[in-house]
Amino acid sequence: MTTKKLQTILEMVDRGCLQKDIAKAVNVSVSTVSIWARKYGRVRIPRRYCLKMYTIYGKDGQYAFEGTARECAEYLGIQYQSFRRMASQYQRYGKGQYAVYPSEVEA
Prior knowledge:
elongated, Helix-turn-helix domain-containing protein, alpha+beta
């Protein structure tokens, strides 16, 4: 690993680029990017811990609520697992009292 490649990796990690994009840019594997970023203290939040936001619309298309899956489940008065199932099934079938869409969140 050259110093120039390492500097590029660390700069791109600091800017918040995805590890796969960094790997393509410097022509190394994704695991190499992860290892060097951790070695120099640039720890990224794993994807499974990132909050995904959802927007709920009524059957008539009126905006109802926006929040995380847990907040939306609480708003609707259902369990978290039920909301997750509802969100994924809506995308496939489009049936139900509410329409649930994933929101675009800017980092």
